[in-house]
């Protein structure tokens, strides 16, 4: 681990590699760079220098290396670090030639790597006797110096290795690199280090992001060699991320090959492929830097993950109106028919099977549907209700299944999801399903069978996970016989059947229902109470009424009474005024009193009056002694 204290204020670490004369130049100028970089001189060459640099890498960290000549070329070949070479400039050559001219007439220049053609023109122009040669290795340089000495050359210009060899041969050796050239190399090393650190920080941030992604990501260069390979992709392919770096992606996973993307620079989004036993969604995107393509990236996401996120988004973003308010335990009434319906509904809630609720209008079918939803595993998700008889066919279709932008004239920009999509992972309640047009029954059947919807104007289906609860007041079996309802749809929805009793079959629940409805009606008016006197007065007539509108009709009647309740809380209302207020209860000429010989009716009235015999006598129109006699005779 590098010693961070050596780096000072996070300055770049530069190794200045040079021996002999270059080392002396480094010693002179390195102190002036103390504020910009942490520069260390390595007085070694070739293999020894390489070993020293690697020790620095392990203990302190190294950003760049500065070297010259064959030593620099050697290090460049063996290090995965920026190696900046001290370059030979025209000023360096002129300055060295002037110095050499004072020592000898015949001069030679030996540089590393290549010769400099411009020196030929320079030599001819100034009439210099200048020989120019290049060398690759130390042995090459030694042979060249020895040959030049044998031919009478008096001075040799070159880097440190050459000048040392010249002096050993008894010649004048002139060091070619100026202080300015060395400073320029150090400046370049510091700038390259700064850019390298910025790039390393950017790459580290990118790698950190890639490490956290659940989506598999692979980035390659123009040769399709892997440069980045995140853990999610390694898990998906079952490979070691470190083992694939530098290999061609097509060799690692042929299904994810990027040949076409690299060759043509075309972006491919939303591809569906199989990798092993998984279905995945892929995106292939070219990487461009400053307008030039430098590679490509492929991202892979498991389709199961996409579906899970899709379900979460659709359920999280459900509108507030798509919520069920009622619980099964909150449905008022203890009559035998209602208890049986409530028990059956609780059993149905434990399953995900389609339910068909049958009952007259106003019996509370939606309350039971909401109760089933809230007692089920879907209770935390949307409950979407739609009355199939309340919309024209064209509007009902778009409401149920949604539409794409431009699907029809006047369609909303961007399209709109249908109620099936809105109910995803929840429940959809199709009230009055018997009123649905035959053409839409066909589309509904497909949704129930395939668990997917196709919006109007779309070609691709959208998967949906929805529990369907349907309801109707119609005799669907008769509608099937008449050709008004599809038989296959009837069988599809008539799996779990729930019959809701009409109010006339659960008259024992009337008092409790009336009190609850009265309390809510008064609360809406900002008042409290439950109109006990008025309800006691009207209850005998309610018990004799047929209630064609069921609970909905009872709610309307109690609401009407609540408006006139002030002033009648402690006593009954005038009979004539009561008859004018609720005339439907007085449609018969004779007041609706139970026959006193009907002992069941007597018990029912007693129950309605809460066991108060005086009140029961008033409703029955008999004296307390008659009531006692009837009850005694029954026992």
From TrEMBL:
<dbReference type="InterPro" id="IPR003593">
    <property type="entry name" value="AAA+_ATPase"/>
</dbReference>
<feature type="domain" description="Sigma-54 factor interaction">
    <location>
        <begin position="331"/>
        <end position="563"/>
    </location>
</feature>
<dbReference type="InterPro" id="IPR010524">
    <property type="entry name" value="Sig_transdc_resp-reg_PrpR_N"/>
</dbReference>
<dbReference type="Pfam" id="PF00989">
    <property type="entry name" value="PAS"/>
</dbReference>
<dbReference type="InterPro" id="IPR002197">
    <property type="entry name" value="HTH_Fis"/>
</dbReference>
<keyword id="KW-0804">Transcription</keyword>
<protein>
    <submittedName>
        <fullName>Propionate catabolism operon regulatory protein PrpR</fullName>
    </submittedName>
</protein>
<dbReference type="InterPro" id="IPR002078">
    <property type="entry name" value="Sigma_54_int"/>
</dbReference>
<dbReference type="Pfam" id="PF06506">
    <property type="entry name" value="PrpR_N"/>
</dbReference>
<keyword id="KW-0547">Nucleotide-binding</keyword>
<dbReference type="InterPro" id="IPR025662">
    <property type="entry name" value="Sigma_54_int_dom_ATP-bd_1"/>
</dbReference>
<dbReference type="Pfam" id="PF02954">
    <property type="entry name" value="HTH_8"/>
</dbReference>
<dbReference type="InterPro" id="IPR013767">
    <property type="entry name" value="PAS_fold"/>
</dbReference>
<dbReference type="InterPro" id="IPR025944">
    <property type="entry name" value="Sigma_54_int_dom_CS"/>
</dbReference>
<keyword id="KW-0238">DNA-binding</keyword>
<dbReference type="InterPro" id="IPR035965">
    <property type="entry name" value="PAS-like_dom_sf"/>
</dbReference>
<feature type="domain" description="PAS">
    <location>
        <begin position="202"/>
        <end position="247"/>
    </location>
</feature>
<keyword id="KW-0067">ATP-binding</keyword>
<keyword id="KW-0805">Transcription regulation</keyword>
<dbReference type="Pfam" id="PF00158">
    <property type="entry name" value="Sigma54_activat"/>
</dbReference>
<dbReference type="InterPro" id="IPR025943">
    <property type="entry name" value="Sigma_54_int_dom_ATP-bd_2"/>
</dbReference>
<dbReference type="InterPro" id="IPR009057">
    <property type="entry name" value="Homeodomain-like_sf"/>
</dbReference>
<dbReference type="InterPro" id="IPR012704">
    <property type="entry name" value="Sig_transdc_resp-reg_PrpR"/>
</dbReference>
<dbReference type="InterPro" id="IPR000014">
    <property type="entry name" value="PAS"/>
</dbReference>
<dbReference type="InterPro" id="IPR058031">
    <property type="entry name" value="AAA_lid_NorR"/>
</dbReference>
<dbReference type="Pfam" id="PF25601">
    <property type="entry name" value="AAA_lid_14"/>
</dbReference>
<dbReference type="InterPro" id="IPR027417">
    <property type="entry name" value="P-loop_NTPase"/>
</dbReference>
């Amino acid at each position: 681990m590098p010693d961070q204290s050596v780096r000072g204020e996070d300055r770049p670490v530069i190794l200045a590699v040079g021996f002999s004369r270059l080392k002396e130049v480094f010693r002179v100028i390195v102190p002036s760079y103390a504020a910009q970089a942490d520069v260390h001189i390595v007085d070694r060459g070739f293999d020894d220098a390489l070993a020293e640099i690697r020790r620095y890498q392990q203990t302190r960290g190294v950003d760049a290396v500065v070297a010259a000549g064959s030593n620099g070329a050697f290090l460049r070949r063996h290090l995965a670090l920026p190696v900046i070479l001290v370059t030979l400039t025209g000023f360096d050559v002129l300055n060295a030639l002037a110095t050499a001219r004072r020592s000898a007439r015949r001069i030679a220049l030996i540089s590393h790597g290549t010769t400099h053609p411009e020196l030929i023109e320079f030599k001819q122009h100034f009439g210099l006797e200048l020989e120019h040669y290049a060398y690759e290795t130390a042995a090459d340089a030694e042979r060249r110096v020895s040959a030049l000495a044998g031919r009478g050359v008096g001075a040799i210009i070159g880097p440190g290795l050459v000048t040392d060899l010249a002096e050993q041969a008894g010649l004048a050796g002139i060091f070619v690199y100026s202080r300015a050239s060395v400073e320029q190399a150090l400046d370049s090393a510091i700038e390259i280090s700064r850019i390298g650190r910025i790039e390393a920080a950017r790459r580290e941030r990118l790698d950190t992001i890639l490490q956290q992604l659940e989506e598999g990501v692979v980035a390659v260069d123009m040769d399709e060699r892997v440069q980045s390979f995140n853990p999610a992709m390694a898990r998906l392919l079952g490979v070691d991320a470190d083992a694939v770096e530098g290999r061609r992606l097509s060799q690692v996973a042929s299904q994810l090959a990027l040949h076409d993307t690299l060759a043509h620079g075309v972006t491919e989004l939303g591809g569906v492929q199989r990798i092993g036993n998984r279905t995945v969604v892929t995106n292939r995107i070219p990487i461009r830097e400053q307008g030039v393509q430098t590679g490509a990236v492929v991202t892979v996401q498991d389709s199961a993950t996409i579906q899970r996120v899709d379900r979460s988004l659709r359920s999280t973003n459900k509108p507030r109106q798509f919520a069920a308010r009622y619980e099964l335990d909150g449905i008022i009434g203890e009559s035998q028919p209602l208890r049986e319906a409530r028990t059956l509904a609780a059993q149905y809630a434990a399953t995900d099977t389609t339910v068909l609720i049958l009952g007259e209008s106003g019996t509370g079918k939606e309350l039971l549907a909401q109760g089933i939803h809230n007692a089920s595993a879907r209770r935390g998700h949307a409950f979407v209700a739609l009355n199939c008889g309340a919309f024209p066919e064209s509007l009902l279709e778009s409401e149920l299944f949604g539409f794409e932008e431009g699907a029809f004239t006047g369609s909303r920009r961007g399209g709109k999801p249908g109620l099936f999509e809105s109910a995803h992972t929840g429940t959809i309640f199709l009230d009055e399903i018997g009123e649905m047009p035959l053409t839409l029954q066909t589309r509904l059947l497909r949704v129930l069978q395939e668990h997917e919807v196709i919006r109007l104007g779309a070609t691709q289906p959208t998967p949906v996970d929805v529990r369907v609860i349907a309801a109707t007041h119609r005799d669907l079996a008769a509608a099937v016989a008449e050709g008004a309802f599809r038989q296959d749809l009837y069988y599809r929805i008539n799996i779990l059947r729930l019959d809701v009793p009409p109010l006339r079959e659960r008259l024992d629940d009337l008092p409790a229902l009336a009190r609850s409805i009265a309390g809510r009606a008064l609360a809406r008016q900002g008042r409290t109470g439950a109109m006990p006197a008025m309800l006691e007065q009207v209850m005998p007539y309610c018990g004799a009424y047929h209630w064609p509108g069921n609970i909905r009709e009872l709610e309307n009647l109690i609401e009407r009474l609540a408006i006139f309740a002030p002033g009648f809380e402690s006593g009954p209302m005038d009979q004539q005024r009561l008859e004018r207020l609720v005339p439907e209860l007085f449609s018969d000429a004779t007041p609706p009193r139970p026959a006193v010989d009907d002992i069941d009716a007597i018990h029912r009235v007693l129950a309605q009056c809460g066991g108060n015999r005086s009140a029961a006598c008033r409703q029955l129109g008999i004296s307390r002694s008659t009531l006692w006699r009837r009850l005694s005779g029954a026992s």
